[in-house]
Recover the amino acids of this structure.
């Protein structure tokens, strides 16, 4: 029998001692869970498990709800931004419940002061935290967005750096809005994906307002088109950016061939998937990414369950809807991403080659 196994009808002193010991063990288990979760998120190990985001991993692999996922993400990020607090938690000097109180008010500059305050009782710490929040007049809808993990760059694919300078007031507004978005759930944790999602939403709103595109047609086509160039002689696939021409990785170029319009000089434009079939697949999948735990509704692409190179067709039952992130991960892992077949057909899910 475990030390913490429940046994009824014990004397009061025994019940009280067992409850206290169980609460201590629970606090320690919570602490370890957050630290391990932070490790998964910081090193982006969720991709090795076949998931394109930490949210998707937490919901599918851990059975978390959206609110619990957001709670773990928020706490793990806050601990990463407070190295002294994180070290105290990892070493056992600071318990989970006290850590939750500290990270809600501490900054890298004040973390040592709050660690000192945590040496008292939890009741005293909570009182000090409440005083600090009142003094700062913290808006419950406003929170911190801590730096996200750097993106994993595929071999031979150099990142394009984009820098944005904000005033302190603009940064406060941005952080508050992102915090509120995360509380609503279903928001990308990656900063690059979040920026693209926001721009797509703004573009969609403007197009509807200007009546250039009825809302019912927006989900049937990509929000934007980009021009990718393939050199038949060298095999290089490049895309033009503001930073100049950049080469795409093999996984990215394979992904784009799944669902693209091909233009050959002097010939007619052709699509890898007929527009009518593409619309039918999107409608069947309710315009949502079919990767478990994802469900994104923007930057949707069509994926071949059995690749055309292996005899797969453009029939609706051989196609599925994926967002760009999940589709990219699929090709980066050579088909090893955790993606299920929503069509019900028995064909194996095979990577493109």
């Amino acid at each position: 029998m475990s030390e913490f196994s429940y046994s009824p009808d014990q004397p009061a002193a025994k019940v009280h001692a067992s409850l206290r010991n169980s609460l201590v063990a629970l606090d320690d288990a919570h602490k370890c869970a957050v630290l391990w979760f932070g490790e998964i998120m910081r090193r982006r190990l969720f991709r090795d498990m076949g998931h394109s985001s930490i949210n998707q991993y937490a919901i599918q692999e851990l059975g978390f709800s959206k609110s619990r996922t957001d709670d773990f993400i928020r706490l793990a990020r806050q601990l990463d931004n407070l190295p002294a607090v994180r070290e105290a938690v990892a070493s056992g000097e600071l318990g989970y419940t006290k850590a939750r109180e500290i990270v809600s008010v501490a900054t890298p500059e004040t973390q040592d002061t709050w660690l000192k305050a945590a040496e008292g009782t939890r009741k005293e710490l909570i009182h000090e935290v409440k005083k600090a929040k009142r003094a700062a007049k913290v808006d419950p809808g406003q929170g911190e967005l801590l730096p996200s993990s750097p993106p994993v760059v595929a071999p031979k694919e150099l990142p394009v750096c984009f820098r944005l300078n904000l005033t302190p007031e603009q940064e406060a507004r941005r952080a508050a809005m992102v915090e509120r978005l995360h509380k609503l759930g279903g928001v990308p944790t990656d900063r690059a994906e979040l920026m693209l999602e926001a721009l797509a939403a703004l573009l969609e709103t403007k197009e509807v307002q200007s009546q250039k595109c009825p809302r019912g047609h927006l989900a049937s086509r990509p929000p934007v088109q980009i021009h990718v160039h393939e050199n038949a002689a060298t095999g290089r696939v490049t895309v033009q950016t503001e930073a100049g021409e950049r080469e795409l990785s093999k996984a990215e170029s394979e992904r784009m061939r799944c669902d693209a319009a091909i233009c050959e000089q002097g010939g007619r434009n052709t699509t890898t998937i007929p527009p009518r079939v593409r619309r039918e697949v999107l409608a069947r999948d309710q315009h949502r990414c079919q990767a478990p735990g994802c469900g994104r509704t923007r930057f949707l692409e069509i994926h071949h369950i059995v690749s055309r190179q292996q005899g797969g067709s453009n029939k609706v039952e051989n196609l599925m809807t994926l967002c760009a992130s999940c589709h990219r991960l699929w090709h980066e892992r050579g088909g090893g991403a955790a993606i299920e077949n929503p069509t019900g057909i028995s064909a194996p899910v095979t990577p493109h080659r």
Q: What stands out?
A: Residues 258 and 303 are 6 Å apart (CA to CA). The first strand starts at residue 228 and ends at 230.
